Sequence to fold (140 residues):
Amino acid sequence: MTSRGVTTLFDDITAVVSVRGGVARHVLRSPSWSRVKNIEYIEGGTLSRVSVRETIRRGVFTAIVKRIPESQRTIGCDQCRQKHRPTNARCSATIGVVTHATARGHLYDFETGRDCGVWTTSEEVWLRSSTVGRATYSRA
Fold:
């Protein structure tokens, strides 16, 4: 007999429990970046994409974070949602200029590139070697 149950822990991170032959197996899955509709911020220095999930109070929010590969960070890709697209005319790597998002600890508006100030992260959750995780940001 085989059965399966899925439980959402928080913001798209799920615990999947499957039972086979009377043995329960528990697996955690990271959030699916393909289901993220809006990217609000870029982290300075790392160029990670930040999608706000819940505002806890003024100056504090939880978010789904997507780490980008070293190859994208090296070329300064700052406007592509996932993989670098050479056809994206807004991306600094495509234009051939240095990215504006260079200050570590700062968040930059994804659409306008405006510096939104210094933010600190806490309660980061990354599953295994996943490039997608959850973090809580607070204004420094």
User: Anything to note?
Assistant: The first strand starts at residue 2 and ends at 10.
